[in-house]
């Protein structure tokens, strides 16, 4: 009877052990954000570093109420998602209650299956350029994008994405949260969930 009890206890602890369930935990802290407005949210993302013409593959994400630095976080992910020969980074941002980007990481923080702790440094975003909005028609679906001095916020299919500006040889390229958005003049290309839509600004 005692042997059965020990086996049951061992099974219980194994189920509660993240490693035994195939998950790992990335612990870390966000630094650089001293005064955080009430209602702000902090987001930490692990994603694959892929080519510029393909949407970034998100491995894991956590969003929590933002607090003044240093802010602690714990992000669970599955190491089996980190394919051999591929590169992965962690990035973070803090947005206010209206979705305005306040702080963001501006350097690469590599992730491997042995990474257990990261300190991510945020930099303040200077709102020097007024935000501007634009509407696009994407194969019959309406898309609204708000551009600011560091990126864009896209509203599409009842959801919103925060995108960061990317280097581009022609036009403007924005990426984030599994979405890529290119725009040049009145035309745009949207890539989301392995699908591509061509968009056009409605004619006045």
From TrEMBL:
<feature type="domain" description="C-type lysozyme inhibitor">
    <location>
        <begin position="137"/>
        <end position="195"/>
    </location>
</feature>
<dbReference type="InterPro" id="IPR039366">
    <property type="entry name" value="Pilotin"/>
</dbReference>
<dbReference type="InterPro" id="IPR018660">
    <property type="entry name" value="MliC"/>
</dbReference>
<keyword id="KW-0449">Lipoprotein</keyword>
<keyword id="KW-0564">Palmitate</keyword>
<feature type="signal peptide">
    <location>
        <begin position="1"/>
        <end position="19"/>
    </location>
</feature>
<dbReference type="Pfam" id="PF09864">
    <property type="entry name" value="MliC"/>
</dbReference>
<protein>
    <recommendedName>
        <fullName>C-type lysozyme inhibitor domain-containing protein</fullName>
    </recommendedName>
</protein>
<keyword id="KW-0472">Membrane</keyword>
<keyword id="KW-0732">Signal</keyword>
<dbReference type="InterPro" id="IPR036328">
    <property type="entry name" value="MliC_sf"/>
</dbReference>
<dbReference type="Pfam" id="PF09619">
    <property type="entry name" value="YscW"/>
</dbReference>
């Amino acid at each position: 009877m005692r042997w059965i009890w020990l086996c049951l206890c061992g099974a219980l602890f194994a189920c509660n052990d993240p490693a035994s369930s195939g998950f790992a935990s990335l612990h870390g802290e966000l630094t650089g954000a001293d005064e955080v407005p009430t209602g702000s949210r902090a987001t930490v993302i692990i994603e694959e570093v892929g080519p510029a013409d393909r949407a970034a593959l998100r491995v894991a994400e956590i969003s929590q109420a933002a607090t003044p630095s240093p802010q602690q976080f714990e992000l669970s992910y599955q190491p089996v998602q980190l394919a051999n020969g591929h590169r992965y980074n962690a990035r973070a941002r803090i947005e206010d209650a209206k979705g305005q980007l306040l702080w963001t990481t501006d350097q690469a923080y590599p992730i491997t299956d042995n990474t257990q702790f990261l300190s991510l440094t945020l930099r303040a975003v200077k709102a020097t350029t007024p935000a501007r909005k634009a509407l696009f028609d994407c194969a019959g679906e309406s898309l609204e994008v708000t551009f600011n001095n560091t990126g864009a916020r896209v509203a599409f299919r009842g959801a919103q994405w925060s995108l960061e500006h990317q280097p581009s040889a022609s036009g403007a390229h924005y990426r984030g949260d599994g979405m890529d958005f290119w725009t040049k003049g009145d035309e745009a290309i949207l890539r989301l969930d392995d699908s591509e839509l061509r968009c056009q600004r409605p004619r006045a």
